[in-house]
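Page 37, top half.
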Amino acid sequence: MIPCRSSRAFSKLDGLTWFLAPFLPVPKLDRLARSVPDACDIGDTLVARDVRLSLGGSIYDPGDPMFFNMLAVFAEFEAGLLKMRIREGMAIARSRGKLKGKKPKLTARQQAEPGPAVPVAWPT
C-alpha cells in the first residue's frame, strides 16, 4: 500500500472501480488527482480493490509506492505550471485591456438617477 497522510474520500472512484476493474483508464495523471495526497488516496483505493492504472496506454501498478508517488509529484508540478501560465496570460490580457471583467448591470444614466424611495420603518 502507498503510505498517505490524507484522509479525504474519493467517492466517484467507488462507482468506477467495480465497473472498470481490472483497469482504470486515465489519459494523464493530473486529470485523476490534483495533489499528491489525493493521488495517494486514489492509489490506496485502487490497491485495495486490486485495480491497475492504465495511464496513457501503459499499465501501472499503484501498489508500487515510489513510482506512483513520483508520477503524482510530476502531475502536481504540471498542474502548477498550467495555473501559472493561465495567470500570466490573464495579467497580459488585462494590461492590454482585453480582459475587463463583468459588464455593469446598470447604464451610466441609470446609475446617475436616484433610486426608488424606500420607506423607513421607525421603531414604535
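Page 37, bottom half:
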Amino acid sequence: MPLSMTLAMRNDDYLAPLACGDVTAERLALTLRRDTARALDWVDDPSVDAGELSLSKHIQRLAAGNFSVVAIPFFAERAFCQRCFFVRRGSGLRDFRDLDGKRVGTNDWHATGNTWSRAILRNAGVKIEEMRWWVGSVDGAPSRGRGTLPPHGQYIASGRTLLAMLLEAELDALMCPNPPKGFYAADSPIVRLVPDYKRAEREYYLRTGIYPLQHIVGVRRETFERNPWAAVSLYNALERSKTSWQASLRALPEMLPWILPEIEDTIALMGEDWLPNGVAVNRKVIQTFLDEQVAQALIAKPLAFEALFSEFEGAVKA
C-alpha cells in the first residue's frame, strides 16, 4: 500500500507534470500543496511531511543543533541576485562599489537570496560590516522572520516601510528579491542599481560557473526515519517532473513572443539541464554558500559540506 505524504511547494512551472499526474512518485500517495506565499512555512505545520526550505535558514538550523528536517538535494529555486538592488532615480549610484559605507534596507537578513546579494557586494570590495543596514517590510507586505542582527544592523520601527525610508532619503538603497511597489510604473522614482542586470548575471555565471541556489527540499525527520526510501522516491519524482518540464519548453513559444530565443540562449550557455540537482554537480555552489555563511557571521563556525545531505545519500545507497 502506498505511503501517504503531503508536500508543500511554491507553485513553480516545473511541478506541472507532477501536479497533473504525468509524473508519479513510486510507492507514495503524494498530496502536493502548491502555495507560493506560504510554502516555506510548512515546518510549523505537523500535517505536512515535506516541503520547500530556505537553504540559508536550513544551514543555520543545523549549525544551531536543530536536526528536525532532513534535506534532499533537489534545488527547488535558483536565482541570480544582481537584479536585487534598487535606488532612487537620479541618486548617482550606478555600481555595487558605490554602496560602500551606505545605508541599505533589506527584507530579511538571514534569507538565502540576501546572503548571495551581500556576497556580490563583498566580491566587489564593499565592506558590508561598514555599511548601515535596516531590516523590515519593504512596502507593507509582511517580512519573513526576524532573528539576531549584526552590530551594523537594526530593525525598522513598527508601521514603517523600507520603501518609504528610501523615498524620504533615509536609505540609499534597497536590497530585496522582488521590486518594490510602484517600480514598474511609468517614471517610477525607483530604479535598479544595475539596469542591465541580465548582462551582469551572465558575466557572473561565465566567471564563476555559479547559478545561485536558493531553496532546497526537506523531509520531516520522523517521516524520514520511519521510511528513508520515501525521501529518495520524492527526489526522483521531483527530478522527473523538472526534466519533463524542461523537455517541453521548446514546444511552447507562444507563452511570450520571444521566449524561444531566451530558451535557446540559456541552453547554449548552461547546457540542456540548467537546473541540475544532486550533490556532486552542485558541490562548488554549495561550498561557496557555506563559506559565505561564515564570512557573513550567519553561523559561528564552518559547517562541513557532508553535513547537508549525508543522510539522504545514505538512503540512496541503502
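Margin note: The domain at 85-208 is CATH 3.40.190.10 (D-Maltodextrin-Binding Protein; domain 2).
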